[in-house]
Design a protein that fits this description.
alpha/beta; eight-stranded mixed sheet; 8 helices; about 35% helix
């Protein structure tokens, strides 16, 4: 049972005030889980995961990325990827200052997985483990679109288009998809600068895969049309890390925590966490 749900803001890169939420169990907590949402989503989209894990005595923190949810900024825009990294660093500083003795795990969903991996590859000392859910780890862009994006990023970085990602690609549950459509905090905007920064970061992550030292669990839907499962499989195979696991759910879509088999996914997460406490 959730004892307390809290919300507030913290200062990210360049002084931007970013929105966050936290959920706390009634009993003594086992560990802290920090969730980094994906592009277009927000911290309020993990209701089922939060309820399941808080009931099992985990504290959960999550924040809305700049340009997403209740956080300020142009939808789908960043000046540079370093802003995401600085925002996550500031948030983890806030979280660990509140409960410095508890083990800390990082969970990244979709582009949030890219943000989490970029951070962990650069600074991993404080983390007990990393969980990636449908991480964005492949380019998936044609050569001419990549060329156009690079040009626009230099001359018109705020240029935005709809990403064209169908809401139904998130879940096989029609009620969940209908809830997606009603959620006014979700968006589907992407800018030229974000696209080029994301692609550059994905390349950097893949080039530095062998440097990962933190225990890792990757979860991916086999029918994911947003971030392709073969990209996370290729990344997983590159790793020289001994403590690595990857689970693919053959029929699942992009938002594993909101899909028909979410209970199976959450059980797998709990099992992995228990083995890494």
């Amino acid at each position: 049972m959730i004892d307390r749900e809290r919300e507030g803001t913290f200062q990210g890169a360049n002084g931007v005030k970013l929105y966050y939420q936290s959920w706390h169990p009634q009993a003594l907590a086992k560990a802290i889980l920090v969730i980094v949402p994906g592009h277009g989503g927000h911290s309020g989209t993990f209701t089922r995961m939060v309820a399941y894990l808080v009931e099992r005595n985990y504290i959960i923190y999550s924040f809305d990325l700049r340009g997403n949810g209740r956080s300020p900024g142009q939808r789908g825009y960043i000046n540079s990827w370093a802003e995401f990294r600085a925002d996550l660093t500031a948030f983890l500083n806030l979280v660990t200052a509140k409960k410095p003795a508890l083990p800390l795990f990082l969970i990244g969903q979709s582009m949030g997985g890219t943000i989490a991996l970029d951070y962990v590859l650069r600074e991993s000392d404080r983390l007990q483990g990393l969980i990636l859910m449908a991480p964005a780890l492949g380019l998936g862009v044609s050569a001419w679109k990549l060329w156009l994006g690079k040009i626009l990023s230099r001359i018109w970085p705020h240029f935005a288009l709809d990403t064209g990602i169908d809401l139904s690609a998130g879940s096989r549950d029609p009620e969940v998809v209908a809830a997606f459509a009603r959620d006014t905090l979700r968006h589907s905007q992407g800018t030229a600068r974000l696209a080029t920064e994301l692609l550059k970061t994905i390349n950097w992550i893949n080039d530095h895969a062998t440097e990962l030292k933190v225990p890792l669990l990757i979860l991916h839907g086999g029918a994911d049309r947003v971030t392709l499962p073969e990209d996370s499989r290729i990344f997983w195979e590159r790793l020289t890390l001994a403590d690595k696991e990857r689970r693919e759910y053959p029929d699942s879509y992009h938002e594993l925590h909101n899909d028909l088999n979410y209970q199976e996914v959450l059980t797998d997460i709990e099992d992995w966490l228990n083995r890494h406490l």
